[in-house]
Design brief:
The protein is an all-alpha fold and 84 residues long. 68% of the residues lie in helices and 0% in strands. The longest helix has 21 residues. It is flat and about 50 Å long. The chain starts with 13 loop residues before the first helix and ends in a 7-residue tail after the last helix. The model has no long low-confidence stretch (mean pLDDT 94).
């Protein structure tokens, strides 16, 4: 609003909110893909992280559970850090 934009607010059900967060995650992932500078990449990754944190909160998932699952998958299948 401070920049002249019109803001529309709608209260969403949990189901609608979940749907919109998942849509937003894809949108933000595409912005990560399109980032052309490190600063821009950091900002877009921060947006992705915000959506992930909010999805976790909505579904009562502790971020530590996600990190543990990530580690388990890396041990089981390997990760991207090896570039393989």
């Amino acid at each position: 609003e401070n920049h002249g934009s019109v803001i529309h607010i709608k209260n969403l059900t949990n189901e609608e909110f979940d749907h919109e967060l998942r849509r937003k995650l894809l949108e933000e992932a595409n912005e990560v893909k399109a980032a052309t500078s490190q600063k821009e990449l950091i900002g877009e990754l921060a947006d992705v992280y915000e959506v992930i944190e909010t999805l976790c909160s909505l579904h009562n998932i502790d971020m530590h559970e996600v990190i543990t699952a990530q580690i388990d998958k890396r041990v089981e299948r390997g990760g991207f850090l090896e570039r393989k």
